[in-house]
Amino acid sequence: MLKNQSEQNIYLINIEDDKNKKRKNKIIVLIVLIILILILLIFIIYFSVNIINNSKIYKQYEEQVELLEQQELEKQEQEKQAKIPKLTDEGKENVKNIYHSETKRAFLTFDDGPSSVTNTILDVLKQENVKATFFVLGSRVEAKPDVVKRIYDEGHYIANHGYSHVYENIYASPQAVLDEYNRCNDAVKNAIGVPEYNSHLFRFPGGLAGGKYVDIKNQANELLEQNDIVHVDWNALNGDAETNELTIEFELARLQETTQNKSSVVILMHDAPVKKVTAEALPQIISYLREQGYELKNFYDIIK
Known about the structure:
Elements: H1 2-82, H2 89-96, E1 105-111, H3 118-128, E2 133-136, H4 138-143, H5 145-153, E3 157-160, H6 167-170, H7 174-192, E4 201-202, H8 214-226, E5 230-231, E6 236-237, H9 248-259, E7 264-270, H10 276-291, E8 295-297
Parallel strand pairs: 1-2, 1-7, 1-8, 2-3, 4-5, 6-7
Helix pairs in contact: 3-10, 5-7, 7-8, 9-10
């Protein structure tokens, strides 16, 4: 009986031990599960925070990129607008008084281009860091639009010299002068890709004063003014309109003669294959003017 009781007690004890072991095992498993869940939660929280932070960073980056793009667009628009002449009352007055200045200034102007010589002229101007004014012909613009685009892109002033340069056509009537202006201006707009471009500046072929067509010119000048177009001639030159037998020495001599004792000079030169000596003389022309104390300007400084 005692033996049986003892065995029974041992049996009960073993059962209890097994229960305790199972209970401990369950607790251990539960603890492990809790730890794993906590670790998983930590990883989830960590990656969630990273994703949120990265999203914020990416959004900030996108906003910065958009801001920079907007600023670049605004800068390009400002640069574009700065190169589109706007004729104000101040500009009209400036053109009217172009030959008068308290300080010495010189405007390099080139008629009749663009031509095969234009790129050489532009190379010299770029090297010398000088901006000039080109009175272009519409017919030549249509033949060399890429050169006109370079003139524009490099900050030179593109002014208007009519379309044909054929006197009997351009001076057929005052309206014919305006029509030639508009036709040339349309060619320039197409070449530079700026539909709103208008130079507001015209140079009469042969100049405004005198000549066979003086009455037509004077009437045309009034019509141009009514359409916010001003004209400018010249009060100095390099002599390349006087002969095709040009030399650098001749051009420099004529420049010295015609600029003497003048504070503000608009210098007539030509952009044409038969005038290629002008391009060759240009470095010395610029050097001479600087030595004489002239500041080199273009008509962006005048038409505002």
